Amino acid sequence: MESNIAIATTATATSVSSSMVLITSGASGRVNALLSLRALKSLVMLINAFLLLLLLPFQGRYWKRCISTTASTEKNPNKDQEIIISNGRKPSPVLRVPAAIVPTRRTTSSAGDQDGSANRQALAIRRATQDDEDEDDFRSVREVFLFATSRGDTLFTQSWTPPVSITMQGVVVLLHGLNEHSGRYRNFAKQLNANGYKVYGMDWIGHGGSDGLHAYVHSLDDAVTDMKAFLEKVQAENPGFPCFCFGHSTGAAIVLKAVMDPKIETLIEGVVLTSPAVRVQPSHPIVGVLAPIFSFLLPKYQFGAANKKGMPVSRDPDALVAKYSDPLVYTGSIRVRTGYEILRISSYLEKNLSRLIVPFLVLHGTADTVTDPEASEKLYEEASSTDKSIKLYEGYLHDLLFEPEREAIVREIIDWLNSRIKVQQVHEGKGRE
């Protein structure tokens, strides 16, 4: 492609100045031509065209089945937040932060916080301390701790534990979707607490209060590795309790790849998946060929302006306002490397669905414009699990736990978890006999 541009530019220069004599090599002439302003503009246009093609898989479903849902946004009043470990006079949440906090690779000063992760972490901790009480005065024990990865990154994690008045019967590890964070699921976590499940949430790399440029993911395999390590930590802290995973969207894809590992599979009693990003196809075969190249050359490049209103992922206007006015939710355009990583993990999952053998429940809205509900049907059909369930919600959108019918969806999830607990208890009873 570069040679074609160079030849065209050289030919133009020759026609303009016929008296000009080139005595340098052809390679040198091509380099000069490539450095010309006209050629550089052509190259930029080529790159932009490719990036547009690369991003179409993540926007195509939206434009094909777009619905007219709008949400107003609010200005972000939170700037340069300081880490607050106490919630002052508010007695509602119980927050514990380990004294020996994990050291981070980056400074927490505003001047040194080049990727913004220090401010995001401070805000995430502050929110945990200011968590409001539920109307029924239900109190979870809230803990926040920083988790060090094998790469030296620091991830923000938190847990919600049922009060002592409720008998604990299991553990749920929760993984959020692309561009969001675990704190968005606090109401869901407290509902699980009320039914005897302790909940752990992990902000994966580049998200929420974790290290990294906001919403930039150099490798989703890193996120899978982090998820495995976090699961092992959770299981070690809660011996004897059945452990489940919950994943939403890209978080569901990470969970799926993690539990396909035979070592992790033995730790898990089952997984719940909402709107999983199982099948994401490039808009054209050439995009799949060129995507690795551009993700290497321009990994953090963003095509287009920020989308503060966001895509319609819920039919609840208040839920949309809450999401897209949240400073911990990324509203900018997807980064090239992140998009390529989603294509890569999606391709892997499509080729390996039969490797899934753990019990699972998959839920998807038929009007989802972000991920494909038909891919969830394919997951259900091809997975080797003998205990598997699927439910499609007619007309529902992407963020199922933030739809107007969220209470019924949560009830569906809790009933499924409870049924797996009963099955385990039956097996354990037979084993003792």
Can I get a quick summary?
By secondary structure, the chain is an alpha/beta fold.
What's the helical proportion of residues? 40-55%
CATH topology, anyone?
Rossmann fold
- How much beta, percentage-wise? 5-15%
What's the overall average pLDDT, rounded? 78
Features:
433 residues, alpha/beta, Rossmann fold, 9-stranded mixed β-sheet, 12% strand, transmembrane, Hydrolase_4
Folded structure, characterized:
- With 433 residues, the protein is α/β, with parallel strands linked by helices.
- It has one domain: Rossmann fold.
- Helices cover 42% and strands 12% of the residues.
- A 9-stranded mixed sheet has the order 1-2-3-5-4-6-7-8-9, with helices on both faces.
- Helix 5 links the parallel strand 4 and strand 5.
- Helix 1 packs across helix 2.
- The radius of gyration is 25 Å and the shape is globular.
- The protein starts with a helix and ends with a helix.
Q: What is the topological layout?
A:
Blueprint: H1 2-16, H2 26-34, H3 37-64, E1 94-96, H4 117-129, E2 141-148, E3 154-161, E4 170-175, H5 186-194, E5 197-202, H6 220-237, E6 243-248, H7 250-259, H8 262-265, E7 270-274, H9 285-297, H10 317-324, H11 336-351, E8 360-365, H12 373-382, E9 388-393, H13 406-432
Parallel strand pairs: 1-2, 4-5, 4-6, 6-7, 7-8, 8-9
Antiparallel strand pairs: 2-3, 3-5
